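batch job 7 of whatever, protein = asparaginase
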Amino acid sequence: MSDTDAAPARLVVLTTGGTIACTSDRQGHLLPALDGESLVRPIADRFPAGSVEVEVREIAHVDSASMTLAEVDELNAVIHEILADPGVDGIVVTHGTDSMEETAMAVDVFHDDQRPVVFTGSQKPSDHPEADGPNNLFEAMVVAMDASARGIGVLIVFGHAVLPVRGAVKWHTTDELGFATNAPEDPVRPTPLPVQELADVRVDIIPAHAGSDGTFVDAALEAGAKGLVIEGMGSGNVGTAMAAAIGRAIDADVPVVMCTRVPRGDVHGTYGGAGGGATLAARGVVGAGCVHAPQARIILAAAIASGAHPQTLF
């Protein structure tokens, strides 16, 4: 068969809103105004005729700061429905940057398929004279069709960077290279879980700082948190009072994951003392490795929903 006779690739693009779908109103405020077809079709038309079939589905139309776990559950259900069709080669998800790393992590933890799911978005709205969304979307579609993207989980394609989602973080509020990663060069990806709904699994993130006490830990437990993510200092340490509150959570069978507030580097259980990482690990606190708090919250929620031990996912 000649190249001209090759069957076209099949992509499904799922749109959820975000800056990539925004235009500016009279006050200069950004609102997600573009529907899925208006966003995707001009980019799909860049590909040579007959080389790719693109289906567009609009899943949501929100600023990603307003994205809920219920909407993430809906997105996951749609992705699994699409991938039940063996003729689909890949999926692209357009998403706001504020919570992209969280939604993408929620897809990755349940993504048990060789075919890629690629997230992208933009830092500038669609009506900006230097809008970055069109090129980001084009490159995401190219990656989603590439054989090298198969079997490595969910990806973020943004600002010419191609990043596995685990450890990825929005590192700049406005720069076109909006995402970086704290993951090692060859990250280990845990075995994906059977898909679960996360909407009813409350996991709270609690930051530590010099002198922080247990007030917010106790408040989260009182509010019904089923898991806690602590954003610790250094390599994963907290003060004495906060350590005591974490101990109360462990005693109540509420799983606790320790992250670091430091931009680069892993969590290490090195220090002793009441709030040292080694002491906390001995009590049962799980180190998050390279993953920062927003993604750790998603992973812990998935562990709780599936009945998996959190340690197996970090």
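notes: Helices lie at 36-44, 69-83, 100-108, 133-144, 215-222, 240-251, 277-283, 293-306.
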